[in-house]
């Protein structure tokens, strides 16, 4: 007589579901979606992805049309004469695509891969850099003001293009 083991039943059900829907054991259908951290500062964007077990040669980064795409592959190493009793880590390929605002320069993307962490830096474009503008008043130079291209200062009304008719 066999004792009822709920954990064994759950494990068998999980294995049947993996086989039915192409679980992570099949490296051709497995999809990885590693988490990403996205930070922004005055220099630009920084995206950080964890890619443990991925070789640098298996990473491809494409940047075009305000889109940044990261593709990578984590290979499963099958060995003859060795039986896998459990394969829980994800293997296969993945692709993540990020929409990047026009104020960033995709022609100057830099990437570093260190100890399984991919760091991608996208600098601000020259047109979006903060710059100092000298303001003249009555022909005299006043204190310079720093403005961010494409944005007004917080709390300031935005300039309107066109005209509005006022009832007279």
UniProtKB/TrEMBL annotation:
Signal peptide: none annotated. It comes from the Bacteria. Belongs to the small heat shock protein (HSP20) family. CDD domains: ACD_sHsps-like. Residues 129-168 are annotated as: Disordered. It comes from Deinococcus phoenicis. Residues 150-162 have a biased composition (Low complexity). Residues 131-140 have a biased composition (Polar residues). PROSITE patterns: SHSP. Keywords: Stress response. Residues 27-138 form the SHSP domain. This is Heat shock protein Hsp20.
